[in-house]
Specification:
The protein is of the alpha/beta class. It contains 10 helices and 7 strands. It is globular.
């Protein structure tokens, strides 16, 4: 069975990019590698060792797909998001992505990947592809100014990933966006050449059948990372990309403190002092 799992990172942040990631796997439903879980449980920025864990997992995932170790975080991000291009003149969010790895033990990451590969071969699971869409703060602000809501931006890139990854019949697991229950009218816009039928529209899940050039199901789930192995991978990858972009942002702007980029007191205090940088690259409108 072909499964695509999609999730986002940075939806409600004050600064930094919005990341939407999709993972395509071939697997029976319910199969789960032991170390993969909801990214909020997998990683906490308050725990220093978690950055090492996060980077080692992403390196091991890269190895599982490419069968070789990457040389830097820049190479990893270029692989997962080859079409990213900064919308700003100064490129403060990505120009200082390091040419090495910041936290990982490479040998440990390789050993982890070998266990991952062994598990996939035993369970007849294969990871086909991982792709991320990175929407920097400036691009995000431009989309908002053009009349798009955060919901529409998120859903648009969800659908773009589905179109790029879906080359055969498949089931898509996506995170519910906000508290939305009804997606039909939006899906009819983004998939205008498909016939779309709601199968389930409930508080915790909304599932749609799409018939067209390919036939597939698209489901939006509350806490999708607890439902879908592929979505958990997507969220972990997205979290890593966002943390690397925040490291570049800090270095570019001279911020010494590690900040989350979300709407906590520390981030608000630090960001309020960045007057000498283009505000459209620093502050997200919504």
């Amino acid at each position: 069975m072909k499964i695509i799992g999609i999730d986002e990172n940075g939806f409600g942040s004050l600064t930094g990019p919005l990341i939407i990631t999709g993972t395509s796997i071939k697997s029976e439903e319910g199969k789960w590698f032991a170390s993969v879980c909801d990214s909020k449980k997998f990683f906490s920025s308050r725990k220093t060792n978690n950055f090492k864990k996060l980077e080692e997992f992403v390196i091991s995932l890269y190895y599982c797909i490419k069968r070789k170790l990457p040389e830097s975080s820049k190479e990893v991000i270029s692989f997962f998001s080859p079409d990213f291009k900064c919308s700003g003149m100064l490129d403060i969010c990505s120009v200082n992505i390091p040419d090495n790895f910041i936290w990982a033990d490479i040998e440990k990451a390789k050993k982890q990947s070998e266990k991952f590969i062994e598990w996939m071969e035993k369970e007849d699971v294969s990871i086909k592809d991982v792709k991320s869409k990175i929407i920097c703060a400036k691009k995000f602000n431009e989309l908002i100014k053009n009349g798009n809501s955060k919901f529409i931006i998120d859903l648009f890139y969800f659908c773009e990933i589905v179109k790029e990854m879906g080359r055969e019949d498949y089931f898509v697991y996506a995170g519910k966006i906000g508290s939305m229950r009804y997606y039909s009218k939006y899906l009819r816009y983004f998939f205008s050449k498909y016939e779309i039928y709601p199968e389930i529209e409930e508080e915790k899940k909304s599932i749609y059948v799409l018939n067209g050039k390919r036939n597939f199901k698209l489901g939006f789930f509350f806490n999708v990372e607890e439902v879908s192995f592929a979505s958990s991978i997507s969220s972990i990858v997205g979290k890593y990309i966002r943390e690397i972009f925040m490291e570049s942002f800090r270095k570019s702007t001279g911020i010494e403190e590690k900040i989350s980029g979300y709407r906590d007191k520390k981030t608000k205090r630090v960001i309020s002092n960045l007057f000498s940088f283009p505000q459209e690259c620093v502050l997200r409108i919504k």
